[in-house]
Amino acid sequence: MLSSPAHTLTVLTPSGESKLSFQAGATLRDILAAGGIAVRSSCGGNASCGQCQVRVAESGNIPFTTGERARLSAAQLAEGIRLSCQLIPRSDLHVSIQPCVAQMAWRPLRNDEYAASIPFKRRASRSRYGVAVDLGTTHIRLTLWELATGERIAGRAGLNPQASYGADVLTRLMEAARSEEVAAEMSGLVRDAIAEALAGIAEQYALKLDQVGEVLLVGNTAMLGLLGRKNAAQLLQPENWTRRIDCQPDDTAFLARGWGISDTANIRFVTSLGGFIGSDLLAGVIATRLIEQPAGSLLIDFGTNSEMALWDGRTLHVTSTAGGPAFEGSGISCGMPGENGAIYHVDQTAGGGFALRVLGDATPAGICGSGLVDAVAWLLRNGQLDKVGRFRDRNSEGFVLVEGQQRIVLKRGDIDVLQRAKAAIGGGVRWLCRQAGLPLSGLHLVYACGAFGRLLDVGNAQQIGLLPRLPSSAVQLEGNSALAGGEALLLADEAEAALTEILKVSKVYNLAEDVDFESLFVENLYLQAMQE
Fold it and tell me: Based on the domain organization, do 51 and 73 belong to the same domain?
């Protein structure tokens, strides 16, 4: 059988021109990757993130896909901008790689990013320094402590570099399952990222990392398993979705060496509660003292993998739901994390207008999750969007937030991504209430946790059905409760005792195959207040 003829791909990058030979059949993204040319991507190649943009000279000869029409504006398509994961070239092409938004470097944590500190009595330690790490799907946050004095020396935040393998946990788990080499590379990416953060702190504060003798990690189960190279694949088996999964490496020497810390350091991965419900949720329950609150107290830890816990006075009902990356600003055509330059609030002004608030008072570069919630609420209030999520003006290209050279437009596809994320949360809250035998009106206190939670406008979140309708005073916006709880576990025996008690009273549920949850998810797709 004769093989198909080879074609030539001419690629213009900032560093010069390259020519690649390819056979028809593969996507442009895969052809570029095989040639050693990476394009930005965080969805694993299914068009949901809209980031792998290239300019194709011959674009007019290649039909657009549904994914491209959802993620790219008419103006972009007219300019020859395409998604490399969607385009399958069948002849010679000339391609220009679009400028990528640089991955965020490690930066200091701001004071407002820490959750309220909880009082505890420090345990004695023979080590001088300790490190607490919150390992999330999208972000990594860590703090370094002087153990003897209980002083937090520094905190850092950065992006999880595994995002290049997919924005969600399942995509990454499936990528890691492909081969030992891929799994090792994914582990190494996180190990090296943490090493970079620690080295930066050591240099700034003139510390010796070999005096770090304690490291405690909390996080979602998948991220801990991928870093520790232990039991991550179990999460691909449904029978394990309510079981505790041990991610603690049998030998942590490879991490100690990679981080440059003491080779005898105690490196602890706090065990998850069950399946996709990670130890970050447990740490949040410790930080908020949830099981010491009145019955009807709810904690929601917003993230790519969102987790929630409901205390009924005797039992802690716990589940997780795939909120997706929208809360982190990913998967949105104009989205970005909650960093400087992110639109984080869209305020109503007199006369039906709006005003933007931007983190760092910088030039707007995109919109983060809290700004997305505000924007959708503004559109609903002003009659520009119906509760199904459609623009009333069917000819609208979207909601233009910023005009000019850096044009920022919220598209219909972006609103759909938020609807699915908030439906997962709303459906999960209502389902969890049913398991606890509580009506929505039986909720008396809600903790909204995480980087997304701390920036929320409660009224707007309630308007679109992301949070239950409670008095604003009953909704507590927390910072990083997972990191705060991790810090407590690093430093205090009291926190260890709390962890033991939480494990005793917890009941874990799996929503993935529950028919009742599926119907609640569909009901909560509507952009309206959460219904009883």
Answer: yes
| Residue 280 vs residues 220, 222, 292, 340: alpha-carbon distances, Å | 6, 12, 18, 25
Q: Assess whether pLDDT exceeds 70 at residue 278.
A: yes
Q: Check: CB of residue 476 under 8 Å from CB of residue 445.
A: yes
The single-letter DSSP state of residue 24 is B
Residue 324: pLDDT over 70: yes
Strands (E) across 374-434 are located at 399-402, 408-410
Q: How confident is the model at residue 1 (pLDDT cuts 50, 70, 90)?
A: very low
Q: Do 182 and 43 reside in the same domain of the chain?
A: no
C-alpha to C-alpha distances, 417 to 389, 403, 467, 519, nearest whole angstrom: 10, 23, 17, 18
Nearest to 491 by CA among 232, 12, 141, 123: 123
Shared domain check, 60 and 165: no
Going from the C-alpha of 77 to that of each of 57, 61, 69, 451, the distances in angstroms are 12, 12, 8, 34
Q: Residue 353 and residue 422: Cα distance in Å, rounded? A: 25
Q: For the whole model, what pTM was predicted?
A: 0.80
On whether both 111 and 254 belong to a single domain, the answer is yes
Under the banding of pLDDT at 50, 70 and 90, the label for residue 105 is: low
Residue 40 lies in a domain: yes
CB 172 within 8 A of CB 222: yes
Higher pLDDT, 123 or 197: 197
Same domain, yes or no: 50 and 177: no
Q: Residue 97's pLDDT is what?
A: 81
Measured in residues, the chain has a length of: 532
Mark whether 131 and 222 lie in a shared domain. yes
Alpha-carbon span 156 to 456, nearest angstrom:
22
Determine the Cα–Cα distance for residues 147 and 4; give it in Å rounded to an integer. 65
Q: Give me the CATH number covering residue 78.
A: 3.10.20.30
**Does residue 346 form part of some domain?**
no
Name the pLDDT band for 100 (thresholds 50, 70, 90): very low
Average confidence score pLDDT of the chain:
89
25: in domain: yes
The reply to whether 76 and 140 lie within a common domain is no
pLDDT tens-digit readout, 299-309: 999 987 889 99
Chosen domain end from 455, 470, 487: 487
**Counted domains in the chain:** 2
Nearest-angstrom CA–CA distance, 288 and 137: 22
Q: Do 80 and 113 sit in the same domain of this protein?
A: no
pLDDT of residue 18: 84
CB 385 within 8 A of CB 470: no
Q: Residue 29 sits in which domain range?
A: 7-97
Mean pLDDT of 35-59: 77
